[in-house]
Amino acid sequence: MKILVVDDERTLVKGIKFNLENEGYTVDCACDGAAAVELARNVGYDLIILDVMMPELDGREACMRIREFSNVPIIMLTAKSEDSDKLMGFECGADDYLTKPFNLLELKARVRALLRRAGRTQESAVVTAGRLSLNTQERVAVRDGRTIDLTAKEYDLIELLMRNPRRVYSRENLMNIVWGYSYTGDYRTVDVHIRRLREKLEENPATPEHIMTKWGVGYYFKA
User: Fold this and answer.
1) pLDDT class of 183 with cuts at 50, 70, 90
2) What's the rounded Cα separation, in Å, for the pair 3 and 5?
3) Backbone angles phi, psi at 166, to 5 degrees
4) Which of 18, 24, 80, 95 is the most buried (most CB within 10 A)?
């Protein structure tokens, strides 16, 4: 799957690119609407993530121009949350709309959903490891056939780890991905959520089988 990310906030683009490439996507980037239209015309993208406020050509105008020659799924990003802005984005041809600041896991979930709807991927909605499984459409965790009650952030954290087994994430990376780049909380928040996940999902939280620690580095999931 090949994705184009267009935004003049370079730090945000870097974060989106890092996260999507971790999911196995190929990612190109641009920082203005004119470049987005040119790239969309010449490259066969499976999805485009397009910011509304950009130099040269804004995202809505870029979206309309892309729609003249392509039906590629488009997610619009904006700092505004008014319904009128969202409706205008849809009228310009966008398929989905996300308001800044947003959770990168939510963005990835919307990317997967749009690709599924467009018939461009056959990704399974269920992620399984041993006696643990996640239904990613219903956001439900199950252990030994029993549904486990998780908070939204606990679910986001375990889904990230289970989708990327053996990949070690530092606490800083987990904060950025799960809580978002605008979050200013203490990194110990990650430790608390990991402890709670072990208590809920591991048979023996003191000697976990799946949610592992790499001392001095971070956390990872062992399938």
Assistant:
1) low
2) 7
3) 75, -5
4) 95
